[in-house]
Amino acid sequence: xxxxxxxxxxxxxxxxxxxxxxxxxxxxxxxxxxxxxxxxxxxxxxxxxxxxxxxxxxxxxxxxxxxxxxxxxxxxxxxxxxxxxxxxxxxxxxxxxxxxxxxxxxxxxxxxxxxxxxxxxxxxxxxxxxxxxxxxxxxxxxxxxxxxxxxxxxxxxxxxxxxxxxxxxxxxxxxxxxxxxxxxxxxxxxxxxxxxxxxxxxxxxxxxxxxxxxxxxxxxxxxxxxxxxxxxxxxxxxxxxxxxxxxxxxxxxxxxxxxxxxxxxxxxxxxxxxxxxxxxxxxxxxxxxxxxxxxxxxxxxxxxxxxxxxxxxxxxxxxxxxxxxx
Length: 326
Prior knowledge:
Layout: E1 2-6, H1 10-21, E2 25-29, H2 33-41, E3 45-46, H3 50-56, E4 62-65, H4 71-83, E5 89-92, H5 98-110, E6 114-121, H6 126-129, E7 132-136, H7 139-144, H8 146-152, H9 161-165, E8 174-178, H10 182-209, H11 226-233, H12 242-253, H13 269-279, H14 285-297, H15 303-316
Parallel strand pairs: 1-2, 1-4, 2-3, 4-5, 5-6, 7-8
Antiparallel strand pairs: 6-7
Helix pairs in contact: 10-13, 10-14, 10-15, 11-12, 12-15
């Protein structure tokens, strides 16, 4: 299939390369000419502007916007809406607030355009292992683009026996979860859960790291190799996960994590999860505590915060901020 990709950062570039690898024509555009040139060398079709992207694609067109949530995405979708024709589809694969999806979908529908929101999980690791896709939008529009979603997902375009038996694509790593907004709503909750999981790992490793601390009674001190412990947990333990994989890799190089400050940012989804829970009177004690811990890290970072920073860089390529007031 043909598809346009707007935004060639860490995620957009890797999504494009995975689609090209699976035989799709990807028309790529970015404000960085170097990024476009790099994708062209890997099989992408270069475009110099949004107008060029739309002209290159054959109707019914599909354009995937992979830009930071907010003004960049808003401006790009509005411009594409002016350029595209009835029956075309605009996909928002970034971490957009689901309420923005509802508003944009209504505006695009009035123009005869389809809006699909795709919660995309997998980070930098997804380029090879595939991405988990949570998709919201009109069912027919989603079905038309099924080959695109299947190629990006861990199934790599193949339908597993489990998925066939359940009449669902969930087993292949992508799923049409509901109407407009549902994709990003599900991804929002996914990231809220991610905050809680990361915090749990981080606090556990801090306890292990301080088992030999001078503040511990001498008879109770234990010099533990937390890198080796993280590794053994990856094999058969009930707590093994991709987050643990990333943590074990970093701790294998340096158990002190001295290169990290421990200042942990939040990119919005954790806050939105808690705000939604508050609006609906749903108690989310673990998720809210994990978010507040990130706020505290910006003034008083500790070892647990360094573990979270290491995880964030490992799976998403995220950097760190600065300690507040410094």
